[in-house]
Write a structure and sequence with these properties.
The chain has helices at 36-56, 103-113, 128-154, and strands at residues 9-17, 22-33, 64-78, 81-97, 117-124, 156-158, 165-169, 178-186, 192-194. By secondary structure, it is an alpha+beta fold. 20% of the residues are buried.
Length: 196
Amino acid sequence: MNSYDQRLTVFGQASESSAPNKALLILGTVTENQQISVAQAENSARITNVVQQLETFGVSGESIQTESYRVSPEYDYIEGQQILRGYRVTHLLKVDVARMDLVGTIIDAVVEAGANSIVSISFMISDESFVYEQALTQAIENAKQKAEVIAGTIGAILQPLPTKVIEHFSVTPLERSGYPMVLSAYSENPPFKRAI
């Protein structure tokens, strides 16, 4: 509390977690050949097989997107000389899998179909906003409770609503199912009056 502007600043904190219900896969094919057209053709054939295999598991075309496509020259260094060895073509897909129980089977199937680059497998939840709103509500209640305790201790009367609320939140890096968040709330106007 500041005796000059009668401002009370409190911080509310809450965390909420939810079990993941979908997976995000980054996978694809890498091919090399001395001729760029051959490397591209082989890569195209492989990626087509991978997409067809994904579709057999009910993964829709909307759930399969190109993450990146790169063509790069490859060199050997012999006796200090840079010699062109050929070309590398990398085509990565971003795949949303709704069936958690099929993730392992899908990985095995796409590898069999020609995928030779599995970049990452992330487990997520479909509706992040719902979990976030739950944590936000709890953080606000936590801040409100602290303000009431402080006001009651010093004999002050709180205004019904704060004049300013600031949100800070973060997602657990490796497990996106956790939503720890910290919410700070403070008022720019006098939030309470001393009881007389």
